[in-house]
Write a structure and sequence with these properties.
The chain folds into 2 domains: 90 residues; 149 residues, hpI Integrase, Chain A. Helices cover 44% and strands 8% of the residues. The protein has 12 helices and 9 strands. The strands form 4 sheets. The protein has a 3-stranded antiparallel β-sheet with strand order 3-4-5. A two-stranded antiparallel ribbon has the order 1-2. The longest helix has 20 residues. The protein starts with a strand and ends in a 28-residue tail after the last strand.
Length: 326
């Protein structure tokens, strides 16, 4: 990037946005089309005509405040995150001297709605045959709706009992072992050498919104979406004692953040934690009271060893954005 005496030539925002979009599209063409492109268009409509140097906290705060009048916190948070990524990329490439601070918008709490066994049975009974196969397969594999619709028989290995979801949301392929029921679903559909797995009237299924809403309303399921079938998959694994780390890989998430919402479902997770601490109690003294009523430690084994409280500097503090060297 051209610089003159430490001054960076200004760059139009639309150019930085385009470079970011091209990078995301190369990394994950399907994911880009499904979600990123819409958000980029929204930001372009808002900031077209501006240069990168014109962005500041006040402008970003005004943008966030205006968006929060019409959209949920999660949507505003997501748009700000993409805008920050665009500016960070421009900064790394030498097109922006410093990235301005961003307003804080609390993201919406992740959903954790999942089916009970009774709810699932009723939903399956009310569903049409093509929807019933999708519901059962989604619950048993954790596949996203887009992954199920794109699943091809070429990526089904019944002998090994596994399927591979390709070109997933995070850009990576994911192989999932099949439960007995999921395998039976595929057998009932009639395996082929190639072609879409889930079809309706011999055509690939592209949407099941109408059929799903009808089945859901028939059994009176409130606040339940097709994506919650994926939550059901993850929730049941955690309830059966599968670690969050393993669930993360089975669902195809890249970090533990997105699966932490299921942690509280682990069986007796608090009891196990407290029992682990109780097992260590013999290494510590008991807390009593001195004559002044202040907490003190009674030594059980070695009176010569005094109790100490270690003050630790808090970590996790975000460093300030570095400026580019002149």
């Amino acid at each position: 990037m051209e610089q003159h005496f430490g001054v960076i030539a200004d760059t139009p925002f639309c150019e930085a946005l385009l470079r970011y979009g091209e990078e995301k599209q190369r990394a994950n063409p399907d994911g880009y089309t499904a979600s990123v492109r819409y958000n980029l268009q929204r930001l372009l409509d808002q900031f077209e005509g501006l240069n990168l140097s014109e962005f500041n906290l006040m402008m970003l705060q005004d943008f966030a405040n205006e968006r929060l009048k019409t959209v949920k916190e999660g949507t505003a948070h997501r748009e700000l995150a993409i805008l920050r990524a665009i500016l960070n990329k421009a900064h790394r490439e030498g097109r922006l001297f410093v990235v301005p601070p961003f307003p804080k918008v609390k993201p919406s709490k992740g959903r954790c709605r999942w089916l009970t066994g009774d709810e699932e049975a009723k939903l399956l009974e009310a569903a049409t045959p093509h929807l019933r196969a999708l519901i059962a397969f989604a619950v048993d594999t954790g596949g996203r709706r887009s992954e199920l619709f794109k699943l091809d028989w070429r990526n089904v290995d019944l002998a090994r009992g596994a399927v591979t979801f390709t070109k997933t949301k995070n850009g990576e392929d994911r192989s999932v072992r099949l439960t007995n029921r999921a395998k039976q679903v595929l057998m009932d559909l009639g395996p082929k050498k190639s072609g879409p797995v889930f079809t309706y009237r011999n055509k690939p299924i592209k949407d099941v919104k109408t059929a799903f809403e009808k089945a859901r309303n028939t059994v009176g399921l409130e606040d339940f979406r097709f994506h919650d079938l994926r939550h059901t998959f993850a929730s049941r694994l955690v309830q059966k004692g599968i670690s969050i780390y393993e669930v993360m890989h089975l669902t195809g998430h890249k970090s533990l953040v997105m699966v932490q919402r299921y942690a509280h479902l682990a069986p007796d997770y608090q009891n196990r934690a407290i029992e682990a601490l109780n097992e260590l109690r013999h290494n510590f003294g008991t807390v009593g009271q001195n004559e002044c009523g202040e907490g003190m430690v009674q030594k059980e084994q070695n009176p010569s060893v005094s109790a100490r409280v270690l003050m630790v500097e808090p970590d996790g503090i975000e460093p300030t954005t570095s400026t580019m060297p002149l």
